[in-house]
Amino acid sequence: MMDGRALYILLISLVFANADSNITMIANDFVFTFINLYTEGKSGFILLVLVSNNNNRTANVTVDSPYPSFNNITVSVAPYSILKIPITPESIQAQYLGNMTTARGQVTVEDKGVRLQSDLPVSVYAHAEVSDGQNADSFLVLPAVHLGTEYVAVTSTDPNAPNMIAVVAYQDNTQISLPTQGVTLNALQVASVTVKTAVSCSIISGNKPFGVISGCTCGTVDGICGYEAVMSFPVDDWGTQFAAIPLMFLTMNYYQVIANTDNTVVSVGEGTTIVTLNAGEYQRFQIGAALVTSNYPIQLIQIGQNTGEKGNNTGGPFFLQLPSTDKMSNTNVLFQPTGFFEYKGVHLVFFLRIVTNLAGTGTIQLYHIHMEMKKAVGLSAHLT
Questions:
Q1: Which of these, 142, 113, 141, lies nearest to 126 by C-alpha position?
Q2: Which end of the chain is less enclosed by CB atoms within 10 A, N or C?
């Protein structure tokens, strides 16, 4: 939710390219879904898919879904550009049942998966936004080749928050175990569950690769409510070292850490322990700029929050999944702001954040961007 004259949206292209970790977010095939952007008293939503083509040739892209009201899309994405593709109708969002007391915790199966294919490798973001521009979040879509069979859900830590978990099948006859029951899905079917309780660290497993999108329709941080959504990494792709940088105008930022191994010790800086977790446990904590490390792989989520007076009282909760430092990009990255560009006649301000895990980074070149110089926070003293 937004309060004030401007909205600061962070959009980071986590295009991983590392020979050792063998993970790249640039690919030809993607499947995903949208968890419902339900907000009390709100109506009208914008759903977008952003396709980034970093090739020197035009990428031909198709978007399809088994949802009966969805019209399949065929578009071309010009070289070195990003195309925003509207996804309609808005009812393609996974159904929200949180306002139906008898349905809380019930698994709903729907034909609401979305598949995007391209003849050239591209990266993909999904974006959902209330049509008045006050509530939004984006998430990086994992390529189908990196989908896994075991995940741990990420939701709001607020025990009364309307949390959602949605899984999307990539193949027919995918058997999935959700927190409340098991379900068998065919390709592009979606199973979702809505609960008004904290369900972070719920284990979701299946017999074939599938995707998990989880979060909260109205997560609360410091009294501000906002839409939080993330497409989780499979457990096999978690990491043990992360560069944690507060968002613009903040000196401290909230994070949520999730463990899948007993006696997981999470530390900052030179080894100061934040928390020790067992499998199935999570913790929200607040720190400044620091290197976060662990003795076993973890999932680390940065949480958007109100920026205070310096940011015109703007900002709100959202989820940003941090890549471990071994999965940071070493190639070109394209980015573009999403959704609305102004609110009540005032132009919104967008920021690009560049984080490195090296003390000597060489030269970073920015093209076709208007920049306003702001104070930057460095981590070179910690990242060696």
A1: 141
A2: C
Strand partners, 15: none
Nearest to 109 by CA among 172, 193, 173: 193
Range of the domain at 250: 8-351
Q: How far apart are CA 192 and CA 321, in angstroms?
A: 21
DSSP type of residue 107:
E
Measured at the CA of 325, the angle between CA 322 and CA 330, to 5 degrees, comes to: 105
Residue 196 lies in a domain: yes
Enter the pTM of the model: 0.84
Q: Domain count of the chain?
A: 1
Indicate whether 194 pLDDT > 80: yes
Cβ count within 10 A of residue 136: 25
Residue 100: partners with Cβ closer than 8 Å, 6 or more residues away: none
Question: Does some domain include residue 203?
Answer: yes
Asked if 256 and 215 touch (Cβ cutoff 8 Å), the reply is no
Partners of 123 in the β-ladder: 52
Tokens representing 101 are: 């007391």
User: What are 69-110's pLDDT values in tens digits?
Assistant: 999 999 999 998 889 999 999 889 988 665 544 445 788 999
Q: Which residue has the tokens 């995918």?
A: 174
Q: Is residue 366 part of a domain?
A: no
Q: Give a yes or no: residue 357 inside a domain.
A: no
* Window from 54-63, 91-100, 229-238 with minimum mean pLDDT: 91-100
